[in-house]
Amino acid sequence: MAELRPNFFIIGAPKAGTTSLYYYLSRHPEVLMSRIKEPNFFSYRELCNQQLYYRDDSVQDQQTYLSLFNTTTPDQVKAVGEASVSYLFYPDTANQIKQFNPDARIIIMLRNPFDRAWSHYLMDYKLNYVRDSFDDITLKRVNGHRNNQHFQQYIQLSLYHRQLQNYFNVFDRKQIFIGLYDDLKQSPQQLFSALCTFLEIEPVALPESSAYNSAEVPRNAFIKSVYASDSIRRGLKKLFGHQQSKKIKSLLFKKPELLPLPDTRQHLTQLFNDDIRKTESLTGLNLSAWYAT
Prior knowledge:
The protein has 13 helices and 9 strands. By secondary structure, the protein is of the alpha/beta class.
């Protein structure tokens, strides 16, 4: 069995379609994705220092990290990658990836910052990682270490300009692919084909359309408490597979009914609009659809 080294990285943003890309690429005959979706190897120190509340499969040492890319068919593999969405936020991660592989290709997915923040909150609520309201966290009406982490995860991760600048400072622009969540939803084949071209692999047809990691909330408190168990979530997916577990979860979860309050939206509008302008200037992208008034 051969051990390959990753040459591309899906680095974020969270809740912007990275899970779908991971699964789409994992089915490509010329691509080898890490056995663990988010090894967080290059952000391990920062995650530990922050004591971030997610239960994950982070990998600390390089030998274990490289073992995630074992394959019995190395000759057919042209692209080797992983998808750790923590890499975008932490400033030093770009330098670490550059040192590891100067020719690495960087894939970044961006989403309307308000929608991304709200979807991230709903995910944490679903997993029982947060109990305070989105409004209280956003407007900083709650204090404490955990609430500061929540503010980081929902709001600061939606401020893209600084995060992108870190990678633009380290990597050549031709090594960076930026995709938009809206394009992935509306024209998934077109975006995926462009990504394949970027990775220099053969564009292939996507599998049957399927949403991964979509925003839902538990139907009641009991389901919320049970689903908070990492072992139960893993067992559900392992026992039934993606399609069947998706059907089961549709019985347990529902689309959220409550939305952030107008005061919260007004507060975030000014914050996000300013960052959107900076992001447009940096990337040359047209993000006019994201502006709120």
